[in-house]
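[recover] target loaded
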């Protein structure tokens, strides 16, 4: 760096992306997962264009957002400059935002109720876009958290696929804060196997290595890449 010039965001973000990638690779090796067998979604919600541009320039192409309107506002010019980038919706989705979500996102991780399934199916029919879907399971039974209860998960998966024809590829969970995540990851893995689903979206900055050990095929890592999340 030239003397007198302030540091830029790019080296830090690029370095952290590489560090997380190496840790995922080591976790895959320990779990007997082939290299590249786990998709790394960098959670960029609430972060601005400079941070996203730094990650894109470093070669990263999978990003997670929690709000449809935020993604609509900041991503279109970046997507034009970086084709092949995939956006993942990882936050709760209101039914009235389903059509916008189908237009913006390539993967929806938070399908958790029949009304949302119906709205997504209608939007896919209108737009011709079919983003992959994960059914979110509330493995901790937390009353204020999104996700279908464990006891109702199988019925929802069947309804999503059989009634609405949605491209459900797997299950997603967010374990209770402060708890050991591994039992939740193990439960999600068992449910997916029972339902014949191949993909598992689980594991965040503090738990992605444990998630890989339990069979994750997608991890969602934000703070370890972008630093503390700014207030929205």
């Amino acid at each position: 760096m030239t003397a007198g010039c302030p540091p830029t965001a790019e080296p830090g973000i690029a370095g952290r992306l590489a560090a997380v990638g190496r840790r995922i690779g080591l976790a895959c090796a320990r779990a007997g997962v082939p290299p590249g067998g786990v998709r790394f979604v960098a959670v960029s919600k609430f972060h601005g264009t400079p941070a996203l541009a730094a990650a894109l320039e470093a070669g990263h192409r999978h990003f997670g957002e929690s709000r449809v309107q935020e993604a609509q506002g900041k991503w279109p010019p970046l997507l034009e400059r970086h084709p092949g980038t995939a956006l993942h919706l990882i936050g709760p989705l209101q039914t009235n935002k389903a059509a916008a979500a189908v237009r913006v996102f390539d993967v929806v991780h938070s399908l958790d109720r029949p009304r949302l399934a119906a709205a997504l199916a209608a939007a896919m029919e209108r737009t011709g876009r079919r983003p992959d879907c994960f059914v979110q399971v509330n493995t901790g039974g937390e009353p204020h958290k999104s996700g279908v209860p464990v006891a109702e998960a199988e019925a929802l998966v069947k309804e999503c696929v059989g009634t609405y024809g949605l491209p459900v590829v797997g299950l997603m969970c967010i374990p209770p804060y402060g708890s050991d995540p591994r039992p939740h990851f193990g439960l999600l893995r068992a449910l997916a196997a029972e339902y014949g689903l191949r993909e598992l979206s689980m594991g965040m900055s503090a738990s992605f290595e444990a998630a890989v050990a339990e069979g994750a095929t997608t991890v969602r890592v934000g703070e370890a890449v972008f630093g503390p999340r700014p207030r929205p």
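[recover] notes: Residues 9-31 form the longest helix (23 residues).
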